[in-house]
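Local shape tokens

___
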Amino acid sequence: MRTETEAVESRRRGHVLIVDDDPDTQFIFLAALEYAGYRVRIEADGVGALVAIRQEVPDIVILDLAMPLLSGLEVLAQLKADPATRAIPVIACTATATLNDVPMLRDHGFAEVLLKPIDPTIMVTAVDRVRLSVLHEPLE
């Protein structure tokens, strides 16, 4: 019989970086993603995100657009300009955009666009979808 730790380890799906300055969003996304088997790191601003990505490249980034220090669009631009980080799929997570903005955000390079408030199960589904489509890895 497997222990709970072994069961969780067998479900690990990759490393997700959550970049959002709202503590409630951080907590909800962290809990949902860890429950789904992802390893998660949280950063509260764009500068911290870039530092974290240089320390350990995540498989997927969830990026708020309206943040202190560097906006999500500025972070995305830096990631896409660097050959070492260009291929990291980035999911926009925003309360400042509307459905009309989604095509423009996708044109900037976001793999998915989530409009706040976001149901945690929808967010996990989006991460799974990006993982399947961009990383071409089967879910366990």
About this structure: The CA atoms of residues 69 and 80 lie 18 Å apart. Confidence is low (pLDDT under 50) at residues 6-10. The chain has six helices and five strands. Residues 11-132 form a domain with the Rossmann fold fold (CATH 3.40.50.2300).
